[in-house]
């Protein structure tokens, strides 16, 4: 490809992905299945990898999420809320572990926190002296939307942390999602009332959480599971040394965790977890689009650090797209 053709192709891909992002993140109304989005993003990343001199800071490959919606007050995240790198093929996990070992200059087998990749919205919840004071969407990772009134209505989000020994300030990060049974009931009720049917639980969760009237959110069957921490103050507050133990500490304070979180050793342990969750995918109470593996030792996470839009110490291993499977089944049933 000539330089001009490459530039034109990059621009076309970026424009297309920017449109998809706007429809998905801002309007909560995606125009293409996630698998199609992922294909376009991979095409952009591959072309940028071949022509790194043409990467622009505003390329969607360098950015997280979408702009916050103007209707809500804005919240600046003290620690950016990032995305996750994706691995697609089977060898991605061993390649991921090899990259980490190279960077850490050690051949030690690593321990990982293994977590279902819940298909909802990333949310940050701030507690001061144990009380919930603020909740925000991820937005573009730097600035999100203030959705405190809405998050306060979610049944399993504690308004007060349990116990005395809580930090002065602690930011709990996790996913707001709609369990499958609640989603089915909501759509039945919408249908009966002649209202809009939601395309999938993620879409219903996004539409429910970003309501300007929190009384509507309160009627929607939303749930929250925590998966990480943001700001913790004071600096002297002692937290456990591993990600998994930190999550258990959150649970002791009354914060809900996904019951299917586990730990594993090495890439093979992660692959076993992947297979195990994939085989149970249809039986889970909630939608997932893959699993996430995070280096468990916080000291190693700090050593590994971040790239532009994602931590180096975590990877999302996506499952085959459900929309595509559904489309295939539809075709089979028609013939
Ligand atoms: P991502 O979904 O690939 O991964 C990051 C997100 O994973 C986090 O923000 C968090 O919300 C979520 N997550 C769930 N469980 C987690 C856990 N245990 N630990 C950490 N994070 C966890 O990245 P993204 O930037 O949110 O979105 C990109 C994806 O969204 C695309 O790959 C695509 O599937 C979808 N998308 C689709 C369209 C479309 O038009 N269909 C548009 C934009 C994005």
Automatic annotation (TrEMBL):
The active site is at residue 117. NAD(+) binds at residues 34-38, 83-84, 115, 138, 175, 294, 318. DNA ligase that catalyzes the formation of phosphodiester linkages between 5'-phosphoryl and 3'-hydroxyl groups in double-stranded DNA using NAD as a coenzyme and as the energy source for the reaction. It is essential for DNA replication and repair of damaged DNA. Belongs to the NAD-dependent DNA ligase family. LigA subfamily. This is DNA ligase. It comes from Alteromonas gilva.
